[in-house]
Amino acid sequence: MLTLKGVPAAxxxxxGKSLLFSSEELMVPRRPITDAQVPTEVLRLEEAMxxxxxxxxxIQKKLGDELGQEHAxxxxxxxxxxxxxxxREEIITGLKSQxxxxxxxxxxxxxxxxxxxxxxxxxxxRERTADIDDVRKRVLRNLLGKQPAPIDQITERAVIVAHDLxxxxxxxxxxxxxxxxxxxxGGRTSHTAIMAKSLEIxxxxxxxxxxxxxxxxxxxxxxxxxxxxxxxxDPPTITRYELEQRRNHELRRQLQxxxxxxxxxxxxxxxxxxANIELPEEVPSVIAHGAHGIGLFRTEFLYLNRYxxxxxxxxxxxxxTVAEQMAPQPVxxxxxDLGGDKFLSPLQFPTEMNPFMGWRAIRFSLARPxxxxxxxxxxxxxxxxxxxxxxxxMISGVEELRRANEILGEVRRELDQEGQAYAKELEVGAMIExxxxxxxxxxxxxxxxxxxxxxxxxxxxxxxxxxxxxxIAYLYEPTHPAILRLIKQIIDxxxxxxxxxxxxxxxxxxxxxxxxxLGMGLDEFSTSPVQLxxxxxVIRSVEYSFAQSVMQQALTLPTGKDVETFxxxxxxxxxxxxxxx
Length: 581
Ligand code: PEP
Ligand code: MG
Known about the structure:
16 strands; 581 residues
């Protein structure tokens, strides 16, 4: 038995056989062939290509059915490679001139293109390399009679063990088959972790060398709550975790009874409990978990996993659907937050040294007003179909906010001229997730109707800790005194300026931190749907004055660890079953 530590990414316990997901190189045999064998090799290539096409079409169908069309379209580029006639001709010429088996020729030809693509100045072509390489491996596997890559072809229920998984790969997982996943790299608030929470798949990231320590098929327990992976556990450990699974299940069942109850303290101070979503398909889960609305719709996910941009109409449909399903509850649409760890294929994103501090979010939107306007038009048009609000990500100063609002004003006038309806009173907010914005929030408050604190980024920028880097995950502390002070200041300043203040970072969904934030007077808590009932339980279990005194005492403590210990002890007084023993 071996226990590996990692970063807790998505809560819950799961156990089962491991399935190693790796993009390891395939061994490609090289053997001479005769002229007479060339037609057979061409036939083998054709068959492998057809098989690959069928496999990709099957994946697209499955993804389309389970998660929506946007997920399926990631594979359109793969199909284009398979249909490329000039590539096919080059391989046939190679077969005839070099007289080697088709695996070797195919691999050489595709590698030559990959090298050229990797060196090109054209960002778009450079980004195509991953797709071409994926097709290369799929065709080679078929030529060699090997199994397709496991992540999209999983038929058994398994725990995925991988070096890394992108947010879009995670989005492809199906929770019926993926029991849990563990990766070598990654941080707690990476979008891969956030996606795992949305899908309710227990996950541990940043486990450093899990891919070297776990063998294929080995039995593992993934404890996504504590960030631990137990390899080859002994029977008492299995029994202990089975008990925990049952306890978790029972706790969830109890929490479900809170679904229709108000989110208010014992002395009736109400708060708004909202959910974060990435795609419209998540709305049923939001409703099932008893949210008051959607506090963050990460619209950039509409732009990922595809090779063309969603046009205004398509976006309108998505926003309209969510608005109508949630009405009369509010839905806060965040304008696209591309960049950071979410990249887009059709747009030519440069490779950056520090993408989280680079061409991201509102910076990108202001640089590409054509794309930004289409999104704003879609949001405004959908605003009459429900209760929509709009917010901008990564605001770092007043000018940026004014410029975004100016464009919004232009788009409003354009719609007026066209006679298109939109909600005139649409509330507009700013995310406060950059330290400069936190420090000048009195100035920003004059330009907006509300603030939503994005702690995932606010913590990484304030503490200079990359949110996806597992090596420094220990420094990523929501309880750091600097973070507490910043948040308190944002809430106080927002209230002094008569605007409401919410939080849509992961911090809002952690029970001990929710107690602290309640005491600070936070108006709205928006978090992954699975965390919502936990927060509601905390809020319904305390008097507001208790939360206030906890907050005041927490603010006097010198270290993040002290604050964490104190908050856990305070929470234990009111809801002991939410705190681990
Ligand atoms: C945040 O930064 O806290 C946030 C909610 O936005 P995202 O996680 O999408 O960056
Ligand atoms: Mg953010």
